[in-house]
Amino acid sequence: MKHFRNNPLIDESFRGENHFLVSAIQRTIITGMTMLVCCGWTVFLCLSVQAYENLALHKPAWQSSNLLTNSGAERAVDGQYTNLSFSGGQCAVSGPGLTTDAEQTAEWRVDLGGVRSIHHIVIRHVTGNRVLDENNFYTTWFMGFSVHISNTTNKEDGVLCFRDTNYTSATIPNPVNITCPYHGRYVIYYNNRTHAPYPEGYSNDAWIRLCEVEVYGCPSLGFYGKNCSLECPQNCQDGYCDSVEGTCIDCKSGYIGPRCNQECPVGFYGKNCVKNCSLTCIVPGSCDKVTGQCLGGCQAGWTGDICEKECSLGLYGANCLMNCSLTCGHPGKCDRVTGHCNGGCQHGWTGVKCEEGKRQAGQGSVVNKLTPKIIYIKHAHLSIQFLKK
């Protein structure tokens, strides 16, 4: 109410004349809707506030086997769990049937339809509609279960969210509430009985007995916090951040730090800033933090985005933009850095780049810096015309 009382848009005269409207404004501010009144117009501004949602509700689900026709995997995400009996039609149940032997492993999973930001998972097991304690034989099938978050249907590709190593028949809760601040597409429930002897209170078989699995998280990527109202840092990879703390799961290229707000140090670039900028950049070790592209181009003799390629035959200089002289002893072959001709010059040419023409005149030779204009063959004799510089 303090915000309302100090609102400069609503003066005391307005309050007195519009008591009921003011009361309505007070209520809407509390409930997340703001009403502004100006010049006879009434405007409602709805404040968008998200909250953790059950991301698994009515999503596609799968389990390793079915015991009854009305106990498929989808029963654990149908939103119904008033009947916690394995045959009540509201629970996912696996296990041996008429043609199926006892199972040593049991797996159930739900497809969230895409990578989602998960905060916590609530699991309701079958109880037979009785208290789940040491006197309830259903507890033996739940002991040792684990929960995984993965971007594929293979739990080994993801992260282990929870594994029971401490529950007993007397202490296992129902529901089980697991904090699991990860990103993933598939939530996988798994149990096994593969390494006998088993701990006290464990069944000999692994069965699915799930009445409901609720996966709570932010419905939209890029948000975190209790109400999913805070935006993830802008340099988080793909907008993924911890659903509680807002720390980035991973950083975009060129950034490091828990919130990815630190640029790569000088001389480094790329993912996690582990790549070194090229020493053949025009300024050694100076490059773009993201791509590694050299700033200002390459040193003489090098080319490529990160100056990783030597000049091709016939080219030299910075960024390999200069052509080797055709008057080199081996035409077009020169030092890729300086452009100095390899193998000397052709007859009649001199200079480190064979750029100076040599012409005989009378008793001596007169050297002029000349530029070839035309090279042609006439009557089997090579003639070269020059233009004076």
How would you sum up this structure, described in words?
The chain is mainly β. It folds into 3 domains: 2-46, no CATH class; 53-218, Jelly Rolls (Sandwich); 322-388, no CATH class. It is 7% helix and 32% strand. It contains 4 helices and 26 strands. It has helices at 2-5, 12-17, 19-30, 139-142, and strands spanning 33-38, 41-46, 53-54, 61-63, 92-93, 105-125, 146-150, 159-163, 176-179, 183-192, 209-218, 223-224, 230-231, 255-256, 262-263, 268-269, 275-276, 302-303, 309-310, 315-316, 322-323, 349-350, 356-361, 364-368, 370-378, 381-388. Strands 3, 4, 5, 6, 7, 8, 9, 10 and 11 form a 9-stranded antiparallel β-sheet that branches. β23 and β24 (364-368) form a beta hairpin. Mean pLDDT is 81; it is low at 1-49 and 360-389.
Average pLDDT confidence is 81
CATH class of the largest domain: Mainly Beta
Q: Considering the protein shown, what is the CATH homologous superfamily of the largest domain?
A: Galactose-binding domain-like
Sketch the major β-sheet.
9 strands, antiparallel
What's the end-to-end separation, in Å? 88 Å
SSE run: HHHEEEEEEHEEEEEEEEEEEEEEEEEEEE
Instruction: Count the domains.
Output: 3
**Secondary structure tally, helices:** 4
What is the alpha-carbon Rg in Å? 38 Å
Helix content: under 10%
Structural class: mainly beta
Number of strands: 26
Per CATH, the architecture of the largest domain is Sandwich
